Structure formats: structure tokens, C-alpha cells
Amino acid sequence: MSPDFRSNRPSAIPGLSRRRLLMDSALGFGALAMNALLGGTAHAAASANPGTSGQRGKPHHRPTARNVIFLYMDGGVSQVDTFDPKPRLTREDGKPFGLHMEPTQFEDNGATLGSPWAFRPRGQSGLPVSELFPQVGSRADDLCVIRSMVSRFSEHNAANYFLHSGSGMAGRPSMGAWTTYGLGTENRDLPGYVVLDGGLIPSGGVDCFGPGFLPASHQASLLRNDLPALANIQPLETAPGLQRDKLTSVRALDAAALTRLGSHDALEAAIANAELAYRMQMSVPEATSIHGESEATRRLYGLDSTSEHTRSYGRQCLVARRLIERGVRFVELTCTRAHGNSRWDAHGDLRNNHSINARAIDQPIAGLLTDLKARGLLDETVVLWSGEFGRTPFAQGRDGRDHNPHGFSLWMAGGGVRGGMAYGSTDEYGYKAAENPVEIHDLHATLLHLLGLDHERLTHRFGGRDYRLTDVHGRVIQAVLA
User: Which of 58, 138, 191, 370 has its CA 20 to 30 A from that of 84?
Assistant: First the structure.
């Protein structure tokens, strides 16, 4: 199943450095041609212990997945209203909260707040799912719900950075960047890491998707959820040869600079990105166009819905499937403006906030899981659904919930993950992780493991030390592996 990850980068030729090759190749044209041909191969980091990691770009072990689709629930979804039923909340609704309250973001804490939505067992597994998600609930046997997630941050920016990069500060590589750094892309005409803009860029901005200190070519490409998916995708030149001539001239100037100055990440990334952008003028319009999809497929994803937000998110899900079919390694979907700018961040008006947001994503996500399974793609694609933290089981004010990093839920499906199960638990109120707590570093370690990468061996030397996505933490959650 896994592709051949062998690297043919010029630096792999014994005794021949990149700089020497540039100097000996007619002002760099030979190197640039080679770079254009081989730029899609993997750029995996060698192990911190030379000789133990195997060939550069080759998985450390046999993968069960080759792609990731990250359904990012911006703002923080309430675990006790979605995938973690707590009967005690219902019984004690409106009463003083029975546990010590940790400091909250806004310190406007009220009484115990029971869930407005009922739960019922779904699928053969009997996995409880809230009535907020009737369609996703129909795929319960594919879901592995982790109910004992914890985060170290209760503020959106830091928590978003932490979820995406394993650090609470901006500037570290995101998990998508680490994925392409480790495995490369399977399609040299498309980026390896794509973020689909549903209308809301998360708190923290595009730094959530950045390459940090990894080579700049591993940053995400942000595509609009519309056509054209990229600005300036159509050439302005009247003849194809004119654009090619311009690129050739730019490459000559860049090659001359590289010859004089030696290797420089920003310049080499600019060269690679210019070549990729040229190829993307053909590949991106085809990959992001859904006009050729059947009416049955469009209905499956909710593209015939009366809700514009369901249609919008459905298009994201369908494009995500098309991208991973074409070899894109990591695709992240962002939220629509279903509840204005508040995302899932229900500090008030909980019932409307979660109802409207759930309505936007329920059918599209169920359609995505159904379609992936029917096409044989779910077995090799990890689908991850998560926000940056959860929400309090007691009210903020009268009808909201504040941020809660002490215990929340997410789910995974496909790609070697066991379906139809819940792992870990929170206390009787759904407030704090009580059994088998799972940290963000553990989630990252597990995702990399499914992709065939050892999180302790996928490293990059920067500032005199070896860095990794999981820092000095993380463990693979063996119990959720199929």
C-alpha cells in the first residue's frame, strides 16, 4: 500500500554538494531542472542517531495510513453535548456545581448546566452520540472517540498553536508540515499540505499552519472554498511560452544568487514554490472542481441542502476527498460562519450555537466517511475531528459554557484506528479527565505512528538541538490502534 519513499535529492549523491552541483551546472540550470523533477520527493529528517532511521524519506515502520483529513472544530466543542453523555448533569441541572471550579477564561461561572440534547446508542457498537449529530451517529462503528483529552491552555491562540504544533507559542512547525517533511507528497503537481478556507481562519491566524523552522516549502497552501480556489491561478500572459520565459529568467537570477551565496532555505523554497505554482495552474482547478461529481455524490455531501453552510462545508469535504485521492498528504478543513464569527465558542446562547454549527457539518462529515469507505480510501486515510479544548459542564452566565482544557472529546476514524469504541473517560460531570488522560503530544505521536513515522526519530536540528513535533513528550495510544 505504501508508496516508494526513496529520495533522489542532489545532496544524496556521494561527494557532491548542492553548491558544487549548482556551480558545475551552467549557472544552476541543471540543478534547477533536477529540483523541478525531484522536488516532490520526501524531505524526511534523519534520525538524531545516525544510522538508526533508515533511508531519508522512508517510513520508520509499515504505515496503516498515507493521508490525514483534519476536521478542525474551531472554538472548542462541548464534550458533554456531543460525545460524552453525563446523566448527572441532567439530574443536577440548575443546582450548584458539585466540584471545585478551576479558574475560567471569564470567571462568570453559574450553576450546573445539563445538556439540552439527548444521547442514544448508535450502530452495532452502541457508541452513544448526541442528537446533535444524527448523520455522523450513523457512522458510529467507524468512530474512535477519545473522551479524556487534556490541553495545557485555556485561551484560543495558545490552545490552537498547541493543537496544531505541540507548542503554545507561534513559530513551531504544524503537524501538517511535519507530515510532509517526513513523507513528502505523492503528487508533484499539488502541495503536500493544504488548508481549505471555510470562512473562519482560527485564532492565532495562519501561523497555525506554518512550517516554523522546517524548510519553507512545507508550509500549508491555503485554498478558498470556491472557484477559483487560488487567486491568480489563471495566467495573465497571452501565450503559454511567455510565462515559461519569465520563469526561466527568474530561475536564472535565483540560480546565480545561489551560486554566489550557497544554499538558503528561503530562496530555494521560492524557486520550488514558483515551479509548483506553475504546475498548479493546471492541477488545482481540476482537483478543486466538483462539476464532474455525480448527483448522488453531491447529495451525499449535502450540496442540495437548503442551508448554505451545509453546502459550504459539504464542498470542503468533497474537495478534501478529491485532494487525498490525488496524493495530498494532509488536508485541514476550517469552519464556516454558520454562527457568525463565534465558531463553536459558545460563551452564551449554547443551544443555538451548537445546533447551527452541528447542522452545517453533520451531513457533510457523514457523507465524507461514507464516500471514503465506499471508495476504499478510509482504510488508508485518518479522519480527525477535534477542537482546541472543550467546555465547562457548569454554565457561563445563564446559557453558555466557558473554555475547559481539563477534559474534552475528539474522534478519529479510518487509517488503522479501531472503530466503534470510546477510550478514556471524564468524571461524572464531564469536567476533568479521570481515566487514561490523553495529551496533545500523545495525539500527535499516534497520528505520526499511523503514517509510519516514529515521533521520537522524526527530528530537525535547529538552533543547536534536535526538535520534534512532540518535543520531549508523547506516547502512542496503543489501545486505539486496530
Answer: 370
